[in-house]
Amino acid sequence: MSAPKIVSPPRNVHNKTGSFIAFSCEVSGFPVPSIEWKVDRGDGILIPLPTDDSHIAVQSRGGPSHYEVTSWLQLLEINVKDSATYWCIAKNNMGEASESARLYVQDAAGELF
User: Fold this and answer.
1) In this protein, which residues make up the domain named Ig-like (predicted)?
2) Using one digit for the tens of pLDDT, what is the confidence trace for 38-82?
3) SS (H, E, C) the chain
């Protein structure tokens, strides 16, 4: 039995409006942890993802090693309002681990948010 450990955390992403981006997060632990994604839009409130917003999707699968799970958070056609901190949170009955990454979105005028 072991608490979750984030083997490969999400990384910061810089991209332009209209682009597609993906964060990934690989976690190990026993029992195999569950992964959830949350977003902090700058106010300290963590909002669970995906929401009812059709441009956000979450996928997960086992592996690549035993007792590991990999999850992806995908954002389609990003815009300035998507600039935020995204959290990967892994949990099992032994504990919890989390890591975050920031999405920076560049608008049409070249300004980075």
Assistant:
1) 4-104
2) 999 999 999 999 988 899 999 999 977 889 999 999 999 999 999
3) CEEEEEEECCCCEEEECCCCEEEEEEEEEECCCEEEEEEECCCCCEEEECCCCCCEEEEEEECCCCCEEEEEEEECCCCHHHCEEEEEEEEECCEEEEEEEEEEEECCCCCEC
pLDDT tens-digit map of 89-104: 999 999 999 999 999 9
Residue type, 16: K
Q: Which residue in this structure is represented by tokens 């929401």?
A: 51
Q: What pLDDT score was predicted for residue 108?
A: 86
- Cβ contact 45:39 at 8 Å: no
